[in-house]
Write a structure and sequence with these properties.
9 strands; two-stranded antiparallel ribbon; globular
Length: 83
């Protein structure tokens, strides 16, 4: 199970890492990313979330979103999710 770094109020990693489910249940601050894609006509491209996801299944969402894994940079997380 992948872990996500918990952040303090100053966005510093104090060394605690939890699962996505734990981090959301406990309301801990953590890193996530959003990527907004537009077509040539400047329309925002959306995605439909999976029916199997535990948060907002089958709903529309922004182009790409995800969590930054423990020890990972935001740039690496975005690249990982986009390939």
């Amino acid at each position: 199970m992948k872990k996500i770094d918990v952040l303090d109020d100053f966005e510093i990693r104090p060394g605690e890492a939890l699962s996505r489910k734990e981090i959301h249940y406990l309301g801990k601050i953590h890193r996530a990313f959003h990527l907004y894609l537009f077509d040539k006509s400047k329309n925002l491209l959306l995605q439909r979330r999976s029916h199997m996801t535990d948060y907002f299944p089958a709903m529309f969402s922004i182009s790409l979103t995800g969590h930054v894994d423990a020890g990972e940079s935001s740039a690496v997380a975005l690249y990982r999710a986009s390939i």
